[in-house]
Every structure is written in C-alpha cells, then in structure tokens.
C-alpha cells in the first residue's frame, strides 16, 4: 500500500523515479481506507532532503499512511523556500487539537547549545508533552532523542572531543522486541553528532531501557513506555550520500571532524561509499509502523490517551 502525501510534495516525483509507490491526497480520497496518521516535526535545515529520506522509509509497509508535516512558530528555516513551508507544513497550533497514530521528531543543528538556550526550546517542550498524550508512538531522532531524554527523564548530554561520525556496528540488546523482528545480531547505524548520552545516566532511570548499543558509538536506541517512545541517537534514515556531503562541507573547516568511519570502501573517499545500513533501516521503520503504531493504536483515533 502507498503513502498518502500532500499534493505536489517534491518527494513524490523523486520516489516515483525510485519505483516507490506513493499517492497524493487527490487520489487517496477516492479510497475507502482509514490511513494511519503520521506527524513529522522536521527540525533539520534541509527540509526537502529530510522529507524524502523519511518518506522513503515509511513507504516500506503494506499500510496506507497519511503524512502531515509540522513546523515551529518560533523558528523560521533559512535553507528551505518560504513557499514550500507554507504549502506543505502546518504550525503546531493548527495540529494540537488532533491526535496521531505515530510521530517522528528529527534532529536539529543546535546540539552543542544547552537545551534551555535553544530559541525554540519552550515550543519543543510543549510539542513533546502533547505527543506523550496524543500520539500512540513517537520516534525521536538524534538531537530530538537527546532533547526528549532530557525533557522527560532528566538525562543530560555531554559534548564530545571529536564528532561521532560514520557507520557503526550496533547490537540489539533485546532482540526479542518486535522493533528488532528480522534483525541480524549486528546492524549498522549512521551517526553524525557532537554530543552523547551515557549508559550510566540512562540506567539510573527505571522507566528507560537501552535496547541497542554500539561498542564504538555508545547508546544507540532507548525505549520508554512500552514502545510509545523510542529515542534513536543515530540517523538510520540517512540516504547513502548524506555523510559524504557533510564530510565535504566540513573538511578543512572544522578541527573536530575526521573522515566518517566504516563509510567509504577501505576508509578511502576516493573508493566510494559502502552502504551497509539501508536494509535494517527499512526493517526498523516497518516494524515500528506495524507493531508499535498499527497494532497498538485504537480503532477510534480520538481514544488515544
């Protein structure tokens, strides 16, 4: 089954060229099926790129999904056309009276700053609190994962000496969980961050469970409330070229960014990218949609609590 997306969203044409089945709202209205409602709070600077990355993964499910993009009132993006934001995004105030089966909150380029100094922190906290009561399950990614762990559970973040950058072997610590159904013993996760959360702090919170971890990059996935919240420190949604683009952007400009590990063939940029994470990325998002959203959300969406 396809995803249901806003008419004329740029990701539609991109994904159709990849032979991924998507439909716009005009066609979806003709089908008598209740789609799962998924809200995406996109805090990444390159909105269209992130939209496409997430929609690509969400398409790998037999369920019809209705995707709604959320924006902040307290922040104006600098790298996305105003017309795009006006056409495809709604402010939280327009969405907070509704309920959603699932939600994704992305990373943001503010991770070095203390949370309280982020200009939109108050609005983000309000959205987090709303999601806890009005969304069946929420994925918090990268900065959003650290922000959610801090806001809900008081888990601090720590600045790294060097950027955690590359593709890191990761182990599912609780492979029996549905989120890891079909996973191998080890899977690869892209990481691109200047801060980290620590196992010792998370273990001190009874409500949190570390469910995936890497020897090299540390805590990878934390689960809370039986799967109503997942905090993912990395970027399984990243396209193959994303880390390469980031490396070329920062090369020679930042002293705390080295070549991304385990990413290029033989760790040599001249030999090209070695993609090792896409299969598990598709599987994780499909498992989340199926087992933690579709199987758990009430038939009447207004019954979500």
TrEMBL record:
The record marks 111 as: Important for acyl-CoA specificity. It catalyses: L-homoserine + acetyl-CoA = O-acetyl-L-homoserine + CoA. Keywords: Acyltransferase, Amino-acid biosynthesis, Cytoplasm, Methionine biosynthesis, Transferase. Its main location: cytoplasm. Gene3D superfamilies: 3.40.50.880. The keyword Metal-binding does not apply. The record marks 192 as: Important for substrate specificity. InterPro entries: Class_I_gatase-like, HST_MetA, MetA_family. Pfam families: HTS (PF04204). It is found in: Cytoplasm. One of its GO terms (biological process) is L-methionine biosynthetic process from homoserine via O-succinyl-L-homoserine and cystathionine. Substrate binds at residues 163, 192, 249. One of its GO terms (cellular component) is cytoplasm. The active site is at residues 142, 235, 237. CDD domains: GATase1_HTS. Transfers an acetyl group from acetyl-CoA to L-homoserine, forming acetyl-L-homoserine. This is Homoserine O-acetyltransferase. It comes from Prevotella bivia DSM 20514. The gene is metAA.
């Amino acid at each position: 089954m396809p995803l249901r997306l806003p008419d004329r969203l740029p990701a539609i044409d991109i994904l159709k060229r990849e032979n991924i089945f998507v439909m716009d709202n005009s066609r979806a209205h003709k089908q008598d099926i209740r789609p799962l409602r998924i809200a995406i709070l996109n805090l990444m600077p390159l909105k269209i790129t992130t939209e496409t990355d997430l929609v690509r993964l969400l398409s790998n499910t037999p369920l019809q999904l209705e995707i709604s993009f959320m924006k902040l009132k307290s922040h104006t993006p600098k790298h996305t056309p105003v017309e795009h934001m006006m056409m495809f995004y709604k402010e939280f105030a327009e969405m907070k009276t509704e309920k959603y089966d699932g939600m994704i909150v992305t990373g943001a380029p503010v991770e070095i700053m203390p949370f309280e100094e982020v200009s939109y922190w108050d609005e983000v906290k309000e959205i987090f609190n709303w999601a806890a009561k009005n969304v069946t399950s929420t994925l918090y990614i990268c900065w959003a994962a650290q922000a959610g762990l801090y806001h809900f559970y008081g888990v601090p973040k720590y600045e790294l000496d060097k950027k955690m950058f590359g593709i890191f072997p990761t182990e599912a610590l609780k492979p029996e969980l549905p989120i890891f159904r079909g996973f191998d013993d080890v899977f690869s996760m892209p990481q691109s961050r200047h801060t980290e959360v620590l196992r010792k702090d998370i273990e001190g919170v009874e409500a949190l469970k570390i469910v995936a971890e890497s020897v090299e990059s540390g805590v990878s996935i934390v689960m809370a409330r039986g799967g109503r919240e997942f905090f993912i420190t990395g970027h399984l949604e990243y396209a193959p070229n994303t880390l390469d683009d980031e490396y070329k952007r920062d090369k020679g400009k930042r002293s705390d960014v080295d070549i991304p590990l385990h990413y290029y063939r033989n760790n040599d940029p001249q030999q090209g990218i070695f993609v090792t994470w896409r299969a598990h990325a598709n599987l994780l998002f499909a498992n989340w949609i199926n087992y933690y959203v579709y199987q758990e959300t009430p038939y009447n969406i207004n019954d979500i609590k």
